[in-house]
Write a structure and sequence with these properties.
The complex is a heterodimer.
Chain A lengths: L2 H28 L11 E6 L7 E7 L2 E7 L5 E5 L10 E3 L4 E4 L4 E3 L5 E3 L8 E7 L2 E6 L2
Antiparallel strand pairs in A: 1-10, 2-3, 3-4, 4-9, 5-6, 6-7, 7-8, 9-10
Chain B lengths: L5 H14 L2 H8 L2 E4 L6 H22 L9 H10 L4 H28 L8 H23 L4 H15 L5 H9 L6 H33 L5 H4 L7 E4 H26 L25 H9 L3 E2 L2 E2 H17 L1 H4 L11 H22 L1
Antiparallel strand pairs in B: 1-2, 3-4
The chains are: A alpha+beta, B mainly alpha.
Chain lengths: 141, 362
């Protein structure tokens, strides 16, 4: 390598190093820090007897929405309310007895299984226990 | 200088002594616009430019009252539209001219495509123009969220989740866009910054280049006009004849925008609630409708892929091919009636129109 080539390499390398030193902090800055997720195991969702039949409610489970459904047989069901397709929040359709996502017309049955429309995966199920008429929702397993 | 006014002459020579503007004036004096049956399309870029200027002016005015915060964004827009004098008008002008701008940019693009104005030497005008359209859509997407109403909230969830489905870089890109895992107040801050600082900066640079290219190269002439001898071509001076016509059209467009803002005020809707189900009838802005509708019609799985990933790949590749049209352009064979490029253009246009209409009907 001649002297000119050596100097070019040194300068070129220097510029690349400088670019890296400028871009690395900027890119790291753009990436938001992870906020530690509150370790929620169980949430209470009000009185079981006051909950109307064939309706549902969205319940905050930490930072995640969970859909709590009371069927016509007084059975309580809870699923992650975030549609597995594109992140919208689902709702219960009393007329269809199914869970519906308004964004792209996705349907899930009352076991959380994706049965129609674009959703690729079923909804995660949550356990519901009634303790002295109080609804308790907790993660499965 | 032609003017007889001694004051103007003195001012001109004062400037000319210092900046030597005479060559520039000479250049502009010899700038002509061809007159033919497709001349009307020359005005579409100018209209888009005018609407962009309206965006900047009305946008700066909106910034004076808007608060980019989860708890106060919706309220600040409500305050602006109901309490601030003419606030409803400024917001209406901003929303309507934004939509019209995207519309006219589309018209400008397709007219450029069908008249083959993207061909040599205007390849880079086409590419910068395409990027400007993409940026305009980015403006639309980020601006849509700012009033923090439920339609915008879910449109943003869906839109950023689509970005997240891009293979490899999708997930980190989604987190950076959202400012976290979910669409929250952090997303609102980011979208605000993107909408009023990052995009305008990039847009201004590209727009300047785009305009510089047009000024340097002049207007494109259709093929049949190029073959005519110079004396048979009809021309119009850019300054002042074409410019005055441009300005007249801008005035008409301004009146249309004002009429729309007065008679069809932009709705604010319900405030976003991150713990409420998505409302029925959720839809994106009309210029995203064709992509939204296509994704909606794709099944959950196509062969080994998730439907949405396939859709995103398709739109990504189609967009890239469209941007690079000048570099793979297929010329019509002499004597042949079949023009492949017109075919592509018609298919693209039909696809967009049909999917958009279906999006509103279904």
């Amino acid at each position: 390598m001649n002297r000119r080539g050596f100097v070019s390499l040194l300068l070129g390398g220097g510029i690349l190093g400088w670019l890296g030193a400028v871009l690395y902090p900027i890119i790291s800055y753009l990436n938001p820090p992870k906020v530690p997720e509150a370790n929620v195991q169980t949430v209470k969702a009000g009185s079981a007897s006051d909950f109307p039949k064939n309706t549902a409610q969205i319940v905050k489970f930490g930072r995640k929405p969970v859909i709590l459904i009371k069927t016509n047989n007084d059975e309580f069901l809870a699923f992650a309310a975030t549609c597995t397709h594109l992140d919208c929040i689902v709702q219960y359709r009393g007329d269809l007895k199914q869970i519906w996502c308004a964004c792209h017309n996705g349907l899930y049955d009352l076991k959380g299984r994706n049965i129609s429309g674009p959703p690729p995966k079923p909804l995660d199920e949550y356990a519901v226990n009634i303790v002295e008429d109080e609804i308790h929702i907790s993660e499965m397993g | 200088m032609d003017t007889k006014n001694p004051m103007v002459r003195r001012a001109y020579s004062w400037i000319d002594d210092r900046f030597h503007v005479t060559p520039l004036v000479e250049f502009m004096r010899h700038k002509y616009v061809p007159v033919h049956r497709h001349t009307v399309w020359y005005y579409m870029g100018g209209v888009s430019l005018f609407l962009f200027i309206s965006q900047v002016v009305s946008g700066i005015l909106l910034v004076l009252y808007y608060q980019a915060d989860e708890d106060s964004a919706y309220e600040s827009v409500r305050f602006l539209t109901t309490k601030v004098k003419f606030g409803w008008l400024i917001r209406g002008v901003h929303s309507w001219s934004a939509n019209l701008m995207v519309f006219f940019v589309f018209v400008h693009m397709f007219s450029t495509f069908f008249t083959r104005a993207y061909r040599k030497p205007r390849e880079l005008s086409w590419v910068t123009g395409f990027v400007l359209l993409a940026l305009a859509m980015g403006f639309g997407f980020t601006g849509y969220l700012l009033p923090w109403n439920e339609l915008a909230f879910f449109a943003t969830k869906v839109g950023t989740d689509i970005a997240g489905a891009v293979p490899f870089i999708g997930e980190p890109m989604k987190i950076v866009l959202r400012g976290g895992e979910d669409v929250t107040g952090a997303t609102l801050s980011r979208f605000y910054a993107i909408h009023i600082a990052i995009l305008p900066a990039i847009f201004t640079v590209l727009l300047s280049l785009h305009l510089l290219f047009i000024q340097r190269q002049g207007m494109h002439e259709p093929q049949y006009l190029k073959r005519l001898p110079a004396e048979k071509k009809q021309m119009m001076a850019f300054f002042p004849n074409f410019l005055l016509r441009d300005v007249l059209l801008w005035l008409i467009v301004l009146n249309v925008v004002l009429a729309l803002a007065v008679f069809f005020p932009w709705e604010l809707g319900e405030k976003a609630d991150p713990f409420a189900p998505a409302p029925a009838g959720i839809k994106p802005e009309w210029y995203f409708m064709f992509m939204f509708q296509s994704l909606k019609m794709l099944p959950a799985h196509v062969l080994f892929m998730e439907g949405e990933v396939l859709g995103i790949l398709f739109f990504g590749l189609a967009g890239l091919a469209w941007m690079l049209v000048p570099f793979w352009d297929i010329k019509k064979k002499s004597g042949s009636k079949l023009d492949v490029m017109t075919g592509f253009g018609v298919i693209a246009l039909l696809f967009i129109v049909v999917m958009t209409v279906l999006g509103y009907l279904l």
